[in-house]
From TrEMBL:
This is Octaprenyl diphosphate synthase. One of its GO terms (biological process) is isoprenoid biosynthetic process. Its EC number is 2.5.1.90. Keywords: Magnesium, Metal-binding, Transferase. Supplies octaprenyl diphosphate, the precursor for the side chain of the isoprenoid quinones ubiquinone and menaquinone. The lineage of its organism: Bacteria, Pseudomonadati, Pseudomonadota, Betaproteobacteria, Burkholderiales. It comes from Leptothrix ochracea L12. Belongs to the FPP/GGPP synthase family. NCBIfam families: PRK10888.1. PANTHER family: ALL TRANS-POLYPRENYL-DIPHOSPHATE SYNTHASE PDSS1, GERANYLGERANYL PYROPHOSPHATE SYNTHASE.
Length: 327
């Protein structure tokens, strides 16, 4: 008799078949009579990525007992919204590398990237309407509006060394965590659960998204370009005052502070090695990781509303996976 304990599946392994169905929806919904739209859309979607947002839709809906086909449409919708934000982000940030490949704006130009991002946004709204549920439209319309506000808030913070930790966290909540929140909330909406469970799922997603972005920001000073799939130091080049820099300024010497201030103001990547040394010496990286761990713990606390299942177990795994990563 074989008494071997079955290997625990990762969330992506558990949902591999369902994610394949989401990919089928994505390919179908990307179709356009305009060749350039097809080319750019398939280029950016084909680059892969972690697909955490559609995964959240699937896991939350299944954890709450929903098995309808609408979950695939909604999972694809949030991926379209996310992809549209990436296209616009890369134009604003003048990025040339994402997921280990040239960005769409580097390949096809800024104008085409912005317009295809608009196409993906408008296609996502067609998909929202297709499920004929006003609550779904309400959740995603709100999310896209808040994300746009987050983009503008981040623009206001750029090259501002006097940005506060609170203003930085507000950008994260709006720009990144809001779509994680909406994705988890959608699973609850599809399952027609009560408001308490819906809010718990939404809070889970928001905390997970915050933890994810905190780690993203520290990896810009701790990672390697080959692993990250983007250029190390991009945040500094763009003048983004992220938490590692804000903490390093508050903890470092006056000389350290002035060096970092000047680098933020001027997007000075030439001093990146010195700045990396400062954020490490001041403990700013570990403090940022601790902040991410605190958010991950808050996320897991929200899942007490869910009945035991393999899908709940997968949701409990996600925060740790978001933190313990190199890209």
């Amino acid at each position: 008799m074989n008494n071997a304990v079955p290997e625990t599946l990762t969330p992506l392994q558990l949902m591999a078949e369902e994610m394949a169905q989401v990919d089928t929806v994505i390919r179908r919904r990307l179709d356009s009579e305009v060749a350039l739209i097809n080319q750019i859309s398939h280029y950016i979607i084909g680059a892969g990525g972690k697909r955490l947002r559609p995964l959240l839709v699937l896991l939350c809906s299944r954890a709450l007992g929903f098995e309808g086909a609408d979950r695939f449409e909604m999972a694809a919708t949030v991926e379209f919204i996310h992809t549209a934000t990436l296209l616009h982000d890369d134009v604003v940030d003048e990025s040339d590398l994402r997921r280990g490949r040239s960005t769409a704006n580097a390949m096809f130009g800024n104008a085409a990237s912005v317009l295809v991002g608009d196409f993906l946004y408008s296609r996502s709204f067609q998909m929202m309407v297709s499920v004929n549920r006003m609550r779904v439209l309400d959740v995603l319309a709100d999310a896209t509006n808040v994300i746009a506000e987050g983009e503008v808030l981040q623009l206001l913070n750029m090259h501002d060394p006097d940005a506060t930790v609170e203003s930085y966290l507000r950008v994260i909540r709006y720009k990144t965590a809001k779509l994680f929140e909406a994705s988890a909330r959608l699973g609850a909406v599809l399952a027609d659960v009560g408001p308490d469970v819906e809010e718990a799922c939404a809070t889970y997603g928001r905390c997970l998204g915050t933890a994810f972005q905190l780690v993203d920001d520290l990896l810009d000073y701790e990672g390697a370009t080959e692993q990250l799939g983007k250029n190390v130091g991009d945040d500094l080049r763009e003048g983004k005052p992220t938490l590692p820099l804000l903490l390093a300024m508050s903890r470092g010497s006056e000389e350290d502070r002035q060096l970092i201030r000047h680098a933020i103001e001027h997007g000075e990547v030439e001093r990146l090695p010195q700045i990396i040394a400062i954020v490490k010496a001041t403990g700013a990286l570990e403090a940022t990781r601790e902040a991410a761990r605190a958010e991950a713990a808050k996320a897991c606390q929200q899942l007490s509303h869910l009945s035991p299942s393999q899908f709940k177990n997968a949701l409990l795994q996600l925060p740790a996976l978001a933190i313990d990563r190199s890209n």
